[in-house]
Amino acid sequence: MKAFTRETSTVAYVPGVNCDTDQIIPGRFLKADRAEGYDKFLFHDIRRDAAGNLDPRFPLNRPDAQGARILLVEDNFGCGSSREGAVYALADAGIRALLAPSFGDIFFNNALKNGIVPVRLPAAVCEAVADHLAADPQATVTVDLEAAQVILPGDLGAHPITIDAFARDCLLQGLDEIEMTFTYMDRIAAFEAERMARNPWLGR
To answer: What is the DSSP annotation of 62-112?
Structure first.
């Protein structure tokens, strides 16, 4: 997992309440080889026209969205099935953070485990960011995980990032839960040795 400390980027606004994981990546693509990248499947069925061509009206297809590593989305983003492929598609497309009033619970945790920071902001704040982006598409947002805050453009100020302390530590170090466990192997080995010394019958 790629470490996340601080990311400053332009923002692509993808509207749509209750955008579920099947919209983020249709289920038929989940058998594809992840090594070849899931980015080409991101929002596949809603960002393409009936002929399969990229629809220039879809936010991520617009020239001013190219290179954006932060998405502004709407309420209950990532709801629906628990497929981790939805997060893979976002990560493979270079997305490092998401701003929304709320997220699907499983999606929220999957994002944290794959190097993406989901930032919950009040709905009114998200609407203000959308309005600002409409007037200034090149405005940037900074997601500062070390300082646990997101810095919004213009006079929208800074807002706290609230995520689990363990998940935050994993993100800062670029370690998933298993890799983080491995950093404690010396302590685990010492504990096991001491336990066996006190209870030799366990080794019988």
So the answer is: SGGGTT--EEE--TTBTBSS--THHHHHHHHTT--EEEES-B-HHHHHHHH
Q: What distance in Å separates the CA atoms of residue 197 and residue 186, rounded to the nearest whole number?
A: 17
Q: Which CATH class is domain 6-173?
A: alpha beta
- What are the residues facing 79 on neighbouring strands? 20
Amino acid, res. 80: G
35 CA to centre of own chain: 19
Tracing tokens 């994981």 back to the chain, one arrives at 21
Q: Which residues, given as ranges, of the chain have pLDDT below 70?
A: 204
- Residues with Cβ within 8 Å of 68's Cβ and at least 6 positions away in sequence, in order, are 9, 10, 11, 12, 60
Beta-sheet pairing, 97-100 with 70-72: parallel
| Tokens encoding 157 | 């100020």
Distance CA 79, CA 105 (A): 7
Residue-wise pLDDT for 54-84, tens only, equals 999 999 999 989 999 999 999 999 999 888 9
Q: Where are the domains of the chain?
A: 6-173, 176-204
